[in-house]
Amino acid sequence: MPELPEIETVRLQLEKVLVGQVCKEIKILSHKVINGKLESVVHKSVKDVKRMGKVLLIDFGMDLLLGFHFKMTGQLIYEQESIRAGEYKRVVGGHPTEDFLNKMPSSHTRVIFYFDKGTLYFNDQRLFGWVEINPKFVEKLGPEPFEIDEKKFTELVSKSKRPIKLVLMDQGVISGIGNIYANDALWEAKVNPRRGVNTLTSKQYSELYKGVVKVLKEGIRYGGATAADAKYIDLHGLGGHYQEHFRTYGREGEECKRGDGGIVHKFELGGRGTYYCPKCQV
């Protein structure tokens, strides 16, 4: 599932092609992924492209937001005919499949949005994702790490007794952090993912906040990550490069990057693969 850096990369690219365009028509191919009356954006122009946590939002003004949640296999493909007849500009984002290269619509296309200059396709193989008008989901999201300071971060996460990694990934507490960045932030802070939140010291809360902000900013800078359970390709069809900078994620059996002689271990926590160095993360 794409996390904050991946969706931010998608947002930046869509912003370049959609702002100012008018939605002319919508064709719904699967009502299973739809919430609300999508036709309310027809004949409206795009004012902005936003993001809240892992949710992409196309802003049509007048308190009208079109939200997309990719979940595991969602993707957006935008096509626009170029000046040269017969040639098309295509930008893509989300879960990478052959649909990125194939002719649209495909058997996985669930909704088609026709704009002035191009067409936006929402595809989803497993039908876990959704498209919604003014999604209520975002009202339940906690603040993003970039919106709060260290003191507020500590206040929010320290209320629980659950393992710290599960709290970091709880979108109602802090939004935008998923499996990849939670693993790496915990390595930065030298904290064991299993540690109960209420057992952390003031210094560890501080280091964890810094670690979360650091890895998310790196993720955005490198265009997100392309990983085994978080397949992601940015809107120009190029894979993100954060995976080249993983601290622990996906590095089971490899030496700790601190050079302390530790070996990265993997275990299951909350149904997700969890990676850590038992030597430096205590």
Automatic annotation (TrEMBL):
GO terms for biological process, alphabetical: base-excision repair
InterPro entries registered for this protein in UniProt: FPG_cat, FPG_Glyclase, FPG_N, H2TH_FPG, Ribosomal_uS13-like_H2TH, Znf_DNA_glyclase/AP_lyase
Cofactor annotation: Zn(2+)
Keyword Endoplasmic reticulum: no
CDD domains, per database record: EcFpg-like_N (cd08966)
Protein keywords: DNA damage, DNA repair, DNA-binding, Glycosidase, Hydrolase, Lyase, Metal-binding, Multifunctional enzyme, Zinc, Zinc-finger
Catalytic activity: Hydrolysis of DNA containing ring-opened 7-methylguanine residues, releasing 2,6-diamino-4-hydroxy-5-(N-methyl)formamidopyrimidine; 2'-deoxyribonucleotide-(2'-deoxyribose 5'-phosphate)-2'-deoxyribonucleotide-DNA = a 3'-end 2'-deoxyribonucleotide-(2,3-dehydro-2,3-deoxyribose 5'-phosphate)-DNA + a 5'-end 5'-phospho-2'-deoxyribonucleoside-DNA + H(+)
Source superkingdom: Bacteria
Positions of the Formamidopyrimidine-DNA glycosylase catalytic domain: 2-129
GO molecular function: 8-oxo-7,8-dihydroguanine DNA N-glycosylase activity; class I DNA-(apurinic or apyrimidinic site) endonuclease activity; damaged DNA binding; zinc ion binding
SMART domains per record: Fapy_DNA_glyco (SM00898), H2TH (SM01232)
Stretches assigned to the FPG-type domain: 247-282
Complex formation: Monomer.
Name recorded for this polypeptide: Uncharacterized protein
